[in-house]
Please model this.
Amino acid sequence: MLRVLAASSLTLLLLAGCGAEDTSPEAALPSTPRTSPAATPDPSPETSPETTAEPNPETSPETSPETSAETTPGTLSPQAPLSRRAAGGGRALLLDPAELPVLADGSGWVTTATTPQDTDPVGVCQRASLTDIGAVSTLRRTFANGHGEARRPAGAVQVVAEFADTRSATRALKVLESWWRDCAEQISEPHQRVAALRTIEVPAGTARAYRATYGPRARAARRLEGLAFLRRGATITVVHVEARAGGFAGPRANPARGAVRRLAARVG
Model:
């Protein structure tokens, strides 16, 4: 009888144990570790490309190229009208060879070059180019005249310089006048003479001119040059003519002064 009861009790315990495995809350615990490995890697690859890889290629082209393309023209645009104005108005102020007065032998002039850069001083008195003293745009034209000289023929240079405004051009004109005042001290030749700065009557603007002679003591080897400049608004025109001593048409002749006077009369 005792064996029957023990067997019955064992049977009931086994049945109770099977029921605990099916209905116990701990049966859901194994599902958590199986779900966790699948959930952890998935957010990582989806989040990483969206937050790291994708924003970088989209931000880089939109900020760098577009900012560069919009900033560069905006930076250069204030000078663009000046360049266009100098190219148009400046060319109208360029001399024709026929507007340069002839030299002592009556020979005429020819144009040798026209360039948009002015990087060299003009004449023995000028210490720097017009670009160096504030010009924002320039045109440079050179002329030649044989004048019977094989080693160093006569030549002429004209520079048309556009400044930012009339005030800047007026300051540059004062610089040109100061160079004339100090010119004699800058010439290291045995002979040097800088004539007076003379005013040229012109319809509009301000014009000045002077002559300079320099070189060795022997008169035949000296150089003679005339320089004149005209300011009209924000534009300055400088004309320089150089020849051997006695090459100008008279003892007080200054071809540069005559050229500026003709130019001023033409443009009004």
User: Anything to note?
Assistant: The two ends are 144 Å apart (CA to CA). Strands lie at 110-115, 137-145, 154-162, 191-194, 198-199, 206-215, 223-232, 235-244.
